[in-house]
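3.2 Worked example (two chains)
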Amino acid sequence: MRPFLIAPLLALGLTTFHASARDTNEVVTADRQDPAVSAAVRQAQAGLTEFLALAAKPPANTRDFKVQVMAEDSNGIETFWITPFRALEQGFIGTVANEPRVVKSVTWGQQLRFTREQITDWGYLKNGRQVGSFTICALFKNMPAEQVEYYRSQHGFDC
């Protein structure tokens, strides 16, 4: 089984840049076959159509729409949070919101074209609370309680 990197958690709180002793660009390595991560990806994909419609016409009290996209090159597989993003005639384009650690063909801040099939997660803020970000919630199960509490309190997670 080939491990891959889940995008750094920083991208989940793009508008929250509080000074902290924590590394805000933390990276989590996960196994693609991890049942919790696989279930989270399936959950995200099941709600993707509704999410994309919402992102196209954001209601009041929502912001920071983002998608997590899987990319692969000869160095490995990695997911990236992309925000902002928009639909094209075929696929999507958006800004890579975290620093690549494995995939060298992608750079932070790059405009990345991607397909719907590459989307592994999505999220946004509604009334200051996270909606979506299913893979991050799945990863909380294996993180230290202090780390999970930090992300709940600083980034609005309720999972």
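3.2.1 Second chain
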Amino acid sequence: MHHLVMRRPHLRDLPPVNPLPPGYELRLAAGDDDLAPLAATLTAAFDDPWDADRVRRSLTEAPDVPAVYVVAWRGRPVATASSRWLPARFPDAGVVHWVATHPEHARRGLGAALVAHVLHDFVGRGHDAAALETDEYRIPALRTYLRAGFLPDYEVAGEDHRARWSAAMPGVLGS
């Protein structure tokens, strides 16, 4: 079974990158010092083990990831999102990749700020659209993506995802 896919068919009328709460800073990942905190954030957010080597392979040194952004709290990354380029799969689109917020810093708008920032990054890279992969149980993330102008893609790699989207929407819409 494939991840759900969402697409933003254009990069007009992008959401603003809202100011972060005091003490937080949005910036590019800054080398080896950010690897361990990024691994801790991704592990906590996805309940999947990450270490510095996986962060390097999947993000900071991945040839298809031109930028890894973080939100740092007192200099330490606690949220992240990346700009990815997968022309074989999404030829006209930048891909929002590995959006994560450490649970201790959730519900502060960090994910929304990162997603908006990555969308603006795509404009600078000449993309015309955006895409992302997610899962139906990531309800706060789905809300963030819908607010940022992403729409569900109902068919992915020959799989019909309408039932999965229908099951997720009551939670997304708060009903």
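3.3 Remarks
The chain has five helices and nine strands.
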